[in-house]
TrEMBL record:
The gene is uvrC. CDD domains: GIY-YIG_UvrC_Cho (cd10434). This is UvrABC system protein C. InterPro entries: GIY-YIG_endonuc, GIY-YIG_endonuc_sf, GIY-YIG_UvrC_Cho, RuvA_2-like, UVR_dom, UVR_dom_sf, UvrABC_protein_C, UvrC. The lineage of its organism: Bacteria, Bacillati, Bacillota, Clostridia, Candidatus Ornithomonoglobus. Residues 196-227 form a coiled coil. It is found in: Cytoplasm.
Length: 627
C-alpha cells in the first residue's frame, strides 16, 4: 500500500520530474518542478484552489514516482520527452508526432534526397514541418520539384552514376539527372542546400545567392546554367509575391501562435513569418484540453512543438501569456539552448503584434468551427446508420457496408465491382474489382455469385494467414468482413447469393437494392421480402449514394479493362460507337473479331459489307506488320 503521507514527507527539495500513476499502473500525468517537495505536496493539500481537471486527476492517483535532475531546464527537457513517450491522459497533448508529415532532406548523406515522411528521427537529416494535412506537404513537394528538379527515382548515388539511360523525368526537364555524370557532387549538394533555404523561408537570401550564381555563369559563358538560375529566381519571386506581407520592417524569423478552446476541443494556429512574409501556416488540434486555460494550452504547445524542432524562430509571439513568469523564462532559455542563440517569447498587449495575433486567432476559430461541423456531420451519419439498423432489424450498427454490381455490354465481358462504405462514407481505397472468369454471356446471377465467392474466399485465406502470423491484418485487402451486404439487383440476386453464403457458412445480412422504372432504388429486398424506404429519409439518400458509387465503380473498371479494345476498334474507318458495341456484343473479345471472316462480320447487326471489309483488312494488315 502506497503511503502518501510518508512519501510526501520524503520528497527531495530539488528540481525534477514527477509521474502520477492510477491503480492500473498507467501514467496519467507528468509534470516538472523547480522544487519537487513543494510542487507535489500542493496536489494533495486539502483546501487547495485546484481546477476541476486537477481534482479529477488527483482522485485517480494511486501512487507517484519522481526523477531528480540537475536543473529545472533539464527537468523541462525530461518532462517533454516523457509526455511524448507516455501520452498521459491529463497532460495537454499535441497529436502524436507520427501522425504529422514532415519534409525530410537527408543532408547528412553524400548525395541527399528529399521526401515526405511521417514523424521525425534523430538520424542527422533535416526535417521541415510538421504539416497537418497530406495535401500541404504534397503541395510543397510539388513546388520543390518544379523549382529545383531533384531526382525522385529509386537510383542510388554515386553507385548508379553513368549506369543506364536517364529516366523520363530528365527528358521532360523534371530532373537535373545526376545519373548522367554531368553534375559534380558539390553541384548536387548545392541544389539540396538551396532546397533547405527555400523550406526555411529564406527566399531573399536564396535569391541573392542564385543571382550571384547567375552572374558567374554568364561571365563564364554558361548560358544554359544562367538561364536555369534566372528561372528559379523568377519562380521564387512569384511565390513570395503571393505570400501575405505582414511587416516589411520585421525581418526576423517569427512564429505567431494563438489558441481557441471550447469544451473538450482546442485548436492552435501558427503562422510562420520569414523576411516579413507569411510563408506558411498550420493548425493543430489539442487533446485533453478540457479544464485548461488558453495560457496553459499555449505554454504546453510551445514546449512540445519546438522540442527537437529543426527550425526555431528568433521570436515567438503568442496571444496568451503564462501566469508563471519563471516558466516563460525557462522555456525561452531552453529554446535558446536548442537554437544556439537568443529566442524571444513575446505576449503583446498593444500595437501591430496584437493585430497579428488577432489575425492568427481568427484562423484558429475557423479551424475550430470546421471541426465542430465535421463532428455534426459524423453524428448525422451515425444517426443514419442507426436508422438503417432499425429499418432492417440488423441488431448492430452497419459501420462497414459492402455493395456489389455487375457490368457488361449486352452480356459480353462481365466485370464486377465491390464498393465499401465505412461509417457512412465511401472508403475508396478499399474498393475492389473482379473480372468474371467462369460465366459466359449475360448471367447476372452467376456473375454475382462468382464475385461474392471470390471476395469471401480471399477473406477466408487472409484470416488463415493472419492466424498463422504470415500476414499483418493491416495489409489484408479483404478483411474485415462487412456488417451488411447490398447487391445491385432484386430478389433473384439475393436468392442466388444467399444459397452461396450458406454453403460457405457465412452469416452476414444481405439485401438487394430494387430499382424503379427510372433505374433508381425504390426498396431493399431480403430473404423475408421487400422493405420500403421512404424517399425523404436519410437512409434512402445513403442507399442511393451507395448504389451510385458501386455502379460507377463497375462502369469505370469495365471502361478501364476495355479501353485498349475500344481504342483499337476506333482506329478503323467506318466503325463508330454503335458498330463497336455490336461487334463486342457478338464476339466478346478483340481476338474473336480479328479471326472472323468478312461475311461473318457483315452479318453483325448495324454492319455492312464495306465496314466488314475495313475491319477484316485492318486486322490482316496489322497481323502482317507484326509478323
Amino acid at each position: 500500500m502506497f503511503d502518501f503521507e510518508e512519501e510526501i514527507k520524503n520528497l527531495p527539495e530539488q528540481p525534477g520530474v514527477y509521474l502520477m500513476h492510477n491503480s492500473d499502473g498507467e501514467i496519467i500525468y507528468v509534470g516538472k518542478a523547480k522544487v519537487l517537495k513543494n510542487r507535489v505536496t500542493q496536489y494533495f493539500r486539502k483546501n487547495s484552489n485546484h481546477t476541476p481537471k486537477v481534482l479529477a486527476m488527483v482522485a485517480q492517483v494511486a501512487y507517484f514516482e519522481y526523477i531528480i535532475t540537475d536543473s529545472e531546464r533539464e527537468a523541462l527537457a525530461l518532462e517533454c520527452n516523457l509526455i511524448k513517450k507516455h501520452r498521459p491522459k491529463y497532460n495537454i497533448l499535441l497529436k502524436d508526432d507520427k501522425q504529422y508529415r514532415y519534409i525530410k532532406v537527408t543532408i547528412n548523406e553524400p548525395y541527399p534526397r528529399v521526401m515526405v515522411v511521417h514523424g521525425t528521427r534523430n538520424d542527422g537529416a533535416k526535417y521541415y514541418g510538421p504539416y497537418m494535412g497530406k495535401g500541404t506537404a504534397r503541395n510543397t513537394m510539388d513546388i520543390i520539384r518544379r523549382l529545383f528538379k531533384p531526382p525522385t527515382c529509386s537510383r542510388k548515388f554515386p553507385r548508379d552514376i553513368r549506369k543506364g539511360r536517364p529516366c523520363l523525368n530528365y527528358h521532360i526537364n523534371a530532373c537535373f539527372a545526376p545519373c548522367t555524370g554531368r553534375v559534380t557532387k558539390e553541384e548536387y549538394r548545392k541544389v539540396f542546400f538551396e532546397i533547405c533555404r527555400f523550406l526555411e523561408g529564406k527566399h531573399e537570401k536564396l535569391i541573392k545567392e542564385l543571382t550571384e550564381e547567375m552572374k558567374e555563369a554568364s561571365k563564364d559563358l554558361l548560358y544554359e546554367k544562367a538561364a536555369a538560375c534566372r528561372d528559379k529566381i523568377n519562380s521564387i519571386r512569384e511565390i513570395s509575391d503571393r505570400q501575405k506581407i505582414v511587416n516589411t520592417s520585421h525581418q526576423t524569423d517569427t512564429d505567431v501562435i494563438a489558441a481557441v478552446a471550447e469544451g473538450d476541443i482546442a485548436y492552435i494556429e501558427v503562422f510562420f513569418i520569414r523576411d516579413g512574409r507569411v510563408v506558411g501556416r498550420e493548425n493543430y488540434r489539442i487533446e485533453n484540453s478540457r479544464g485548461s486555460t488558453k495560457a496553459d494550452i499555449v505554454t504546453d504547445f510551445i514546449k512540445q512543438f519546438y522540442d527537437g524542432a529543426e527550425m526555431i524562430p528568433d521570436e515567438i509571439i503568442a496571444g496568451e501569456e503564462p501566469e508563471d513568469a519563471e516558466e516563460t523564462e525557462l522555456i525561452a532559455d531552453r529554446l535558446r539552448a536548442m537554437k544556439g542563440r537568443k529566442v524571444t517569447l513575446t505576449f503583446p498587449k498593444r500595437g501591430e503584434k496584437v493585430k497579428l495575433v488577432a489575425m492568427v486567432r481568427m484562423n484558429a476559430e475557423k479551424a475550430l468551427s470546421n471541426h465542430k461541423l465535421r463532428i455534426l456531420k459524423e453524428k448525422e451519419k451515425s444517426g443514419v446508420l442507426e436508422a438503417m439498423s432499425d429499418l432492417l432489424s440488423l441488431g448492430k450498427i452497419p459501420n462497414r457496408i459492402e455493395a456489389y454490381d455487375i457490368s457488361n455490354i449486352q452480356g459480353a465481358d462481365n466485370v464486377g465491382a465491390m464498393a465499401v462504405f465505412e461509417y457512412g462514407r465511401p472508403a475508396k481505397r478499399k474498393y475492389r474489382s473482379f473480372k468474371i472468369k467462369t460465366v459466359e454471356g449475360a448471367d447476372d446471377y452467376a456473375s454475382m455469385r462468382e464475385v461474392i465467392y471470390r471476395r469471401f474466399r480471399h477473406g477466408l485465406d487472409e484470416e488463415e494467414a493472419v492466424a498463422a502470423g504470415k500476414l499483418n491484418i493491416r495489409d489484408a485487402k479483404f478483411l474485415p468482413y462487412p456488417d451488411l451486404i447490398l447487391l445491385d439487383g432484386g430478389k433473384g440476386h439475393v436468392r442466388a447469393v444467399t444459397e452461396l453464403m450458406e454453403m460457405m457458412d457465412i452469416d452476414i445480412p444481405l439485401y438487394g437494392m430494387v430499382k424503379n422504372d427510372r433505374h433508381r432504388t425504390r426498396a431493399l429486398t431480403g430473404a423475408d421480402g421487400e422493405v420500403e424506404v421512404s424517399p425523404q429519409s436519410p437512409v434512402f439518400k445513403l442507399v442511393t449514394h451507395i448504389q451510385d458509387e458501386v455502379h460507377d465503380a463497375a462502369i469505370s473498371y469495365f471502361r478501364k479493362l476495355h479501353g485498349k479494345i475500344d481504342s483499337e476498334l476506333d482506329k478503323i474507318p467506318g466503325i463508330g460507337e454503335k458498330r463497336r458495341t455490336a461487334l463486342l456484343t457478338k464476339y466478346g473479345s478483340i481476338e474473336a473479331i480479328r479471326n472472323a471472316e468478312v461475311e461473318e462480320l457483315a452479318d453483325v447487326e448495324s454492319m455492312d459489307l464495306k465496314a466488314a471489309e475495313n475491319v477484316y483488312n485492318y486486322f490482316r494488315s496489322n497481323r502482317q506488320c507484326s509478323d
